[in-house]
């Protein structure tokens, strides 16, 4: 059920955010991921870029049609206008855009927006009810305010990286920039909440999203465990600190994940793998016993799983209702029948890049579903179109091009 989608404004499907315009001054991942989500929901995302464009356009390899796959992954459903923000002409373009926009989002280091005169104080003076969101590594205040924020450093400082990796190994990062993505999600929630507040009150507001703040909240039960015991949670590989067995096991020909999350499931699990004697072993009788004796439990289970192929193990467990799955590669996951059935693989056609396969949108809503309307833009692809929309005549646009104020 692969979905092929190009610009589809004539389809008659309204997005939840149709009519909302977002000025997107962001680059890299946290901000672009946020605005991509808003674009999936129907907002008109105007991506404002310098003459060089978003840095991630040049993060190659890999690439599709000469464009970085990193950039392509977070910039669909956007229109690009390329302007020189240091010029007086560009400031007038921004002024006209702000008058016709609802949301402004930036993820520069604190102080940069002020220097470029695109900060909340300046732009809210143009449109008082604007919703303005800043994403940064550490927030707009505090002792770390001026530090650059990158996924790797936020993972380290937040404590999240101390929890990842094998017990005897080094801390490791996740395979995608989770702290950026997390901040983008919190930013999107904040923006939608602020728009709802504005709908009720007519009042806009400023949003300060810190990647570190979002990551500290992501500690969830691990933070509470520390507060309760004063003991730092340790790396456990794929295991769970409070549930057992709940981890990845090696089989004769691959790895499987097993999640035995209740005593009822434990009974079913022991029966399914042909080891009912484990139920009467005092070391494994209750979940608390299994956690206390996790080393002994894993010795027994690892020997069992290594003697069987993954398909046989999964068949035994799934027939008993035990949550279990093979560890898919990225390629396997993208070919999974459930992923395909849910329409989570889409394809764009773009005049510059050719065909682009991409994950779809998870916004499955009965009245206003998420849509993939158009492919990530070439740098400055919509400059002339956007300038026309905000009142510039053809001769004015030509003058702007000639002066270097726009690209």
TrEMBL record:
Gene3D superfamilies hit by this protein: Crotonobetainyl-coa:carnitine coa-transferase, domain 1, formyl-coa transferase, domain 3
Pfam families: CoA_transf_3 (PF02515)
InterPro entries the record matches: CoA-transferase_III_domain (IPR050483), CoA-Trfase_fam_III (IPR003673), CoA-Trfase_III_dom3_sf (IPR044855), CoA-Trfase_III_dom_1_sf (IPR023606)
Keywords of this entry: Transferase
MF-aspect GO terms: CoA-transferase activity
Domain of life per record: Archaea
Signal sequence range: none
SUPFAM superfamilies: CoA-transferase family III (CaiB/BaiF)
Protein name: CoA transferase
Species, as recorded: Candidatus Sysuiplasma superficiale
